[in-house]
Specification:
heterotrimer; A alpha+beta (about 500); B mainly alpha (about 100); C alpha/beta (about 450); A: about 500 residues; alpha+beta; Arc Repressor Mutant, subunit A; ten-stranded mixed β-sheet; 18 strands; about 20% strand; B: about 100 residues; mainly alpha; Histone, subunit A; two-stranded antiparallel ribbon; 3 helices; 3 strands; flat
Chain lengths: ~500, ~100, ~450
């Protein structure tokens, strides 16, 4: 039967490692915060983390509060009653032989966010977000290099609080899925619940993908759902979806299999060959034997607690985007660059408060600031320059008291100075000279030094003026006001 | 309710529970479990319509802790009881992918 | 060889320690305490009576152990138990069966059989046990001593190797109510490491132990009398009722129709939790790993676990796995949770009309080693004790008589149950009986 159309459907599960101080169910240190990124293997371990006999879990209140922040930011309802369940399966990275998760009473329910793709706004519904714990890691490389044939178990990551955000299958292209993933990442980063470093596995994406194939008889054939596990880059997410979009149609043409019970399968992403590969057939056949964890008691969440958490939620990317565009008149490109880093956007806003000139602030941070930060290997907001100093530069430029290249020099110098922009510019001799007498002396000296160029200008060759201006600038040490110099030169040579 | 288990069911349960049982042990387990289930099935004589399940006997709630850290085990302690250790890791024979 | 080792002809102890008392002038100064082998200690090893944990050394102490040490108790060693506390006879122990000091051809009960035998043989003053469906009270009854299971949540489970987390509770054995009260008072109270431990300080269990009662209503359920009980047990219980009546108590008839279905409920809930609690024994971080070459992880797990666990543990793991598996969860597990609420409510109603419930701890006295080869027959030993755990209330077994029909006198236990956190009253009622009887002063002839 001929295919007349196909429709890709994507739902997404996103795992976010929460940056709490301690683990989800015990006071062992959590490795998902910067000071512990490079902890030695098996050093973030206590009796519960390695599931020693007799150890017991106790809920980390902060992890719950962080999850509530995310839930509220995603416009979810926070459950007033939530409980903990065990998901039973065996794997060497799962010390207890079960994962503590939330099965039928998740913390957050039914939210939605908007994503933007090619200028179009689209809502994505959030089914639920629940708290669970991360597993340890299986490696095959020995410290100092060298492949090991067996598996090496490191439990540092085991027990890290993990928030799983599950969406409805509301996305229809790989671009939309990536936009959704990026938006969730941005929201989580603004909420301060994770640094969101994908290479470190702070966020993992698991798209659930299928295609609805319509044949010429008007019948719709949904292909079996494929879950692609553990994608930790947007490139992989995009690639896996694009690959499935094609593969599933081809598979359907061959086997005609449709969605139904016992038809869901799990695949992985091979980023060498850019294909998805089968990991497990019949996902439903997997019997996790969920049941309420008898070592934990339910958690009730009061409206007071919800209100308290709600008040702590900062302005989120979507609102910033709108504000930067409408209030600040900043370009989309600059806006995206500014909100890419929560700390940068906060720094930017403080600069705007100090200077009242959003577009100049954006320009300084994204050009001089970004360049210097790159050289120093730090973030723009950590360069040492203050919003007041940046406002100072902007105002010196506005009043034409400093030239553009001198302003650039001033920016760099202010990064290691406590002085105001004006006083440092002055002490460093960076302020522009537009005193007529001084300029006249330099102009005369330049004409004397470049007689040929002077003649050319006299005869109307404007191009030659550059050489003369260069002479003036050399003499002024860059402090001469270029506009004024040009005016003087022309006045002198073409009286 | 039919309470006797089939050999396949017992095998499936042993697989889920990661217990290697010989054919004889499977048959013995089938017998024992069927007898036990016959008794357990008296549960179904109790009318539980409209009754909420009771997970915890004392219905305690809201035990939680502040987000502070305490001391960890040393690497040495972590690995002390392990049947096999490689470098500073637990050593597991080669995994050929997929779930255990 | 020290005196304990010399006197232990019952295999009560798995290991005996000789260590000095670390705290001086504590309330438990001079008291010798044995520890069931499923409570972790940094001293010695903790094996849970299983090959799986042969030689296992815990890097931390159970909360109760730290508290006992702080109070000046002298810990004397680890006592044998049924593997992972699953059993009612202490025959299912990887280190051999424990013998009953009253008749060494008979079982001491279980699963805390080693602890019960140690106290019955006067090898130590107190022994710790754990009670999931009767594992303290039943062996106490069979060994003629006091065994007390506190209300769920009174004593921290941190460091108790979990069998069934929502049922397990640590408790104590001694020859007197006074001693179990004293030790439990030290062990009880909030523990930040156990979410299921009540957030209250330890209750006062000792001050009013001897206070007289203004009124005392003792409930007796028809379901506890006759039936499968041996006549000796029934007559000892009747005599106990008479004793209380003479001491001024009012005897109240109560109805506990869910007594029998308790066993069915228990043998769904406990195995379900156990199947998950014992999943961690996979031979990777600790515990037994097979020496056989394995072709994959599945085989490594399955062989290691099959070799490490004994038959009874395997049976319960399979039972629990089955009742939680897809398609059976509602029929078994969820239904058992609903029945659990009904049992709990049944007790609530009973405690509106009486202060404590009285009955036998076990239907019969100690049985012969090997007598109950059929697992179900063994399970039925818990008929009077399992519901206490299912509802989470407190219970105690105290000596109330002896059966003389079988040659050696065999002890009979009186089971008293009280409402949630009414532990102080439960102990007072038990103390009243003990003050006016001498059963607890008798010692087995086998003691040398």
């Amino acid at each position: 039967m001929k295919i007349v159309s196909t429709q890709l459907l994507i739902g997404m599960e996103i795992h976010v490692e929460l940056a709490t101080n301690s683990k989800m169910f015990t006071s062992a240190p959590n490795g998902a915060i910067p000071e512990r990124y490079d902890a030695e293997p098996n050093t973030l371990v206590n009796p519960l983390v390695m599931a020693l006999p007799g150890s017991l879990p106790v809920i980390n209140k902060s992890a719950v509060a962080m999850s509530m922040r995310v839930g509220l930011a995603l416009n979810c309802t926070i459950s007033s009653f939530t409980k903990w369940d065990r998901k039973n399966y065996y794997y060497p990275d799962l010390p207890k032989g079960y994962q503590i998760s939330q099965f039928d009473k998740p913390l957050c329910l039914e939210g939605a966010i908007e994503i933007e793709v090619d200028g179009e706004i689209k809502p994505v519904r959030i089914t639920r977000a629940h708290l669970e714990e991360d597993t340890g890691k299986l490696g095959h490389e020995l410290p100092g290099g060298g492949h090991y044939d067996g598996s090496l178990v490191d439990l540092n990551r085991a027990g890290t609080p993990l928030l799983e955000i599950v969406s409805e299958p509301d996305m229809t292209t790989a671009d939309e899925a990536v936009a959704y993933g990026k938006e969730i990442r941005a929201i989580c980063r603004f909420l301060g619940v994770t640094e969101g470093i994908l290479q470190r596995g702070h966020m993992r994406f698991e798209p659930n993908i299928n295609v609805v194939i319509t044949t010429e008889d008007g019948v719709e054939h949904p292909t079996p759902i494929v879950e692609v596990k553990n994608l930790n880059s947007f490139k992989a997410l995009h690639g896996a979806i694009e690959h499935e979009a094609v593969r599933q149609i081809e598979a359907w043409k061959e086997d005609g299999l449709e969605m139904g019970p016992n038809a869901k399968s799990t695949r992985g992403w091979d980023d060498q060959n850019l294909v998805t590969v089968m990991q497990r057939e019949k996902e439903d056949a997997h019997d996790y034997r969920f049941f309420p964890d008898p070592d934990l008691v339910p958690l009730t969440i009061s409206q007071d607690w919800i209100d308290e958490v709600n008040e702590s939620i900062p302005e989120l990317p979507a609102s910033k985007r709108a504000r930067y565009k409408n209030e600040y008149s900043i370009s989309t490109k600059d806006t995206e660059a500014l909100i890419a880093e929560p700390t940068l956007s906060r720094f930017f806003e403080t600069c705007v408060e100090a200077s009242n000139d959003p577009s100049e602030c954006a320009k300084w941070l994204l050009n001089a600031g970004a360049k210097e930060a790159n050289e120093q290997g730090c973030r723009v907001d950590a360069l040492g320059i203050t919003p007041e100093q940046i406002a100072g530069i902007i105002s010196l430029r506005g009043e034409n008291k400093i030239g553009s290249s001198a302003a650039g020099t001033l920016f760099v110098k202010l990064c290691s100075s406590d002085q105001t922009a004006e006083s440092l510019a002055e002490s460093e001799g960076l302020l522009q000279v537009n005193d007529e007498n001084t300029l006249a002396t330099w102009v005369q000296e330049a004409i004397d030094a470049q007689p040929q160029a002077a003649d050319d200008v006299r005869q109307g060759k404007d191009a030659a003026i550059g050489r003369l201006m260069g002479e003036v600038m050399k003499r002024s040490g860059g402090s001469a006001d270029a506009g004024a110099v040009r005016k003087q030169l022309l006045a002198t040579l073409r009286q | 309710m039919n309470t006797s288990l089939t050999t396949d069911e017992v095998r499936h349960v042993a697989t889920l529970a990661r217990l290697a049982l010989s054919d004889m042990e499977i048959e013995k387990a089938k017998e024992d479990l069927s007898t036990i289930f016959e008794h357990i099935s008296r549960l179904n004589e109790i009318d539980t319509t409209g009754v909420d399940p009771l997970d915890h006997p004392t219905e305690l709630q809201n035990a939680s802790r502040d987000d502070t850290t305490t001391s960890t085990l040393t690497q040495e302690q972590v690995l002390a009881n392990a049947p096999a250790v490689k470098d500073v890791f637990f050593d597991v024979p080669k995994v050929l992918g997929g779930e255990a | 060889m020290n005196t304990i080792q010399k006197g232990d002809t019952y295999n009560a102890f798995r290991e005996v320690w000789e260590q000095p008392n670390t705290a001086q002038n504590g309330v438990l100064d001079g008291l010798t305490v044995a520890v069931k082998d499923n409570i972790v200690t940094t001293t010695g090893t903790t094996t849970c009576g299983s090959k799986m944990l042969d030689g296992y050394e815990s890097p931390f102490n159970a909360t109760v152990i730290d508290r006992l040490l702080c109070a000046g108790a002298t810990l004397v060693g680890k006592t044998n138990c049924d593997e992972f506390a699953m059993g009612s006879s202490t025959e299912h122990c990887a280190w051999g069966p424990v013998l009953n000091p009253w008749d060494t051809t008979r079982v001491p009960g279980g699963s805390s059989g080693g602890s019960a035998a140690a106290v019955a043989a006067r090898l130590c003053d107190v022994a710790l046990g754990s009670d999931t469906g009767g594992s303290i009270r039943q062996p106490a009854a069979l060994c003629g001593i006091v065994g007390y299971k506190p209300t769920y949540g009174l004593v921290s489970r941190y460091g108790l190797v979990a069998f069934a987390s929502s049922l397990d509770q640590i408790g104590a054995f001694a020859t007197t109510v006074e001693d179990v009260a004293k030790v439990t008072e030290v062990m009880a109270g909030f523990d930040e490491f156990d979410s299921t431990c009540r957030n209250e300080p330890s209750p006062d269990l000792t001050t009013n132990l001897d206070s007289p009662f203004d009124t005392l209503r003792i409930g007796v359920a028809a379901q506890y009398i006759g039936g499968q009980n041996s006549p000796d047990v029934d007559s000892a219980i009747s005599a106990a009722i008479e004793t209380y009546r003479e001491l001024g108590a009012t005897i109240v008839d109560i109805d506990l129709p869910l007594t029998e279905v308790g066993i069915s409920t228990y043998y769904v809930l406990a195995p379900a939790e156990c199947s998950s609690n014992l999943a961690r024994y996979d031979g990777i971080r600790y515990g037994h790993r097979t020496a056989k070459p394995c072709k994959d992880l599945f085989e490594l797990y399955s062989e290691s676990r099959a070799e490490g666990f004994g038959d009874e543990v395997k049976r319960r793991i399979m039972l629990g796995t089955y009742v939680l598996s897809s398609g059976y969860y509602d029929a078994y597990y969820n239904n058992a949770l609903k029945t659990r609420r009904l049992i709990s409510e049944e007790y609530k109603r009973a405690f509106e009309v009486c202060d404590v419930i009285l009955g036998p701890t076990t239907p019969t006295t100690a049985f012969k080693i090997g007598e109950k080869a059929d697992p179900l027959a063994m399970y039925l030993c818990d008929v009077y004790t399992a519901n206490t755990n299912i509802a989470g209330i407190c219970g105690i077994s105290i000596p109330c008589g002896f059966s003389e029909t079988t040659g050696n006198p065999l002890p009979i236990g009186l089971h008293l149950q009280a409402a949630w956190y009414d532990d102080a009253n439960l102990l007072r009622v038990a103390q009243l009986f003990q003050k006016n009887t001498t059963f607890h002063t008798k010692t087995p002839e086998s003691i040398t």
